[in-house]
Amino acid sequence: MEKLARNLLFIDDLVLKITLFLCGGLLLMMVLVAGLGVVFRFILHNSLSWSDELAAYLFVWLTCLGAAAGAKLRVHPEVRVLADRCPPAFAQTLADLTDCVVLGLGVVFVMYGGDMLDLMGTETATSLPISMVYPYLSIPVCGALLVFHSAVRIAVSHLAPGAQTRPSLLQGVSEHI
Q1: Number of H helices, E strands in the chain
Q2: Where exactly are the structural domains of the chain?
Q3: What is the annotated localization of this protein (predicted)?
Q4: pLDDT digits (tens, 9 = 90+) for 126-156
Q5: Cα-Cα-Cα-Cα dihedral of 31, 34, 36, 39, to 10°?
Q6: Residues near 39 by Cβ (< 8 Å), separated by ≥ 6?
Q7: What global pTM score does this model have?
Q8: What CA dihedral angle connects 103, 106, 108 and 110, to 10 degrees?
């Protein structure tokens, strides 16, 4: 069971690294597109009709992927009043319950995000020749990542309880976010 838990954590860490790499690329693209829009608008006096909309869609993707990465790294704000005062045996149950709630939220994102994709399938962006499916795809992708990270955390906590407290290559990542 320990080996299975280590393999799950390895895959979980790999998914996180890919997500953070994509977030970095999206942030870079967003800054470049917004900067290009500013240069064209205020220096060349010839506005780009698509720069603001593309920057907004990149920001939506960045936010959704960043939220999933934040859930994996546990860097979202949390209220620890109950968790800090309960006995250790109940603390694990409370942690599992919290992960189940996040997993449930991810399922809702996947289900209703999929419905949004069906609704927006024929719509196109205002100033870009792209389907609105691409911006809305960020919702079910974020949900799938939330489900994945939460399910791995729950599984590992029961397969090998000490495996999650091991030093991770990604442990320092949350300090820089």
Answers
A1: 6, 0
A2: 2-165
A3: Cell inner membrane
A4: 899 999 999 999 999 999 999 999 999 999 9
A5: -120
A6: none
A7: 0.86
A8: -130
